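Let's study a protein:

___
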Amino acid sequence: MTERLATQFAFLAEVEKLKSVTRATPIHDASRPENSAEHSWTLALYALVLADQAAPGVDVLRAVRMLLIHDIVEIDVGDVPIHLANGTAHGSAEIQAAELAAAKRIFGILPKDMADEFQALWEEFEANETPTAIYAKSLDRTQPVLLNEQAGGGSWVDYDVQWEELETRVGTKIARGLPGVWDWVQARIRPWFDARGR
């Protein structure tokens, strides 16, 4: 038991580093960037609050678990903004390989049974094929959009994001798992883009 606790606390100490990973998206008042731990915690709440929007077959508590660990790899890899360099880096084979190595390293700190469980959850989220992963991934795309809107444009300004780009890279992923949410979000944010000729 002592050895198991030691590895569990070693993992918990390691993931404290997620609080130091700065994201491209600012917090609601644009006073500073959000960190990846804040993002993960907020998404867990999104999963609970928006559970009534989930498609049949979604396990909301499993989605919460996915969202709490989905960005732990950023401890090693950092945040890769979706709009960076026209999105060429985000999702590239190089980034995917780095994130997989990070997942194996960080989850590998845990006892083997937990390491295997967390790795499987992370891989399910990344594959984005099960109803639960699709729900979780849709939420992961929703939250930064709403933060940017609250912050007066946030990273949309920083990366000169155009409406078509946002709709393609983000909107389609939200709509895949949460079509009603995307309809609501789109109606809310489209005027910001239209007012700026984007």
In short: The chain has a mean pLDDT of 94. The CA atoms of residues 73 and 101 lie 8 Å apart. The longest strand covers residues 22-26. The beta strands are 22-26, 33-35.
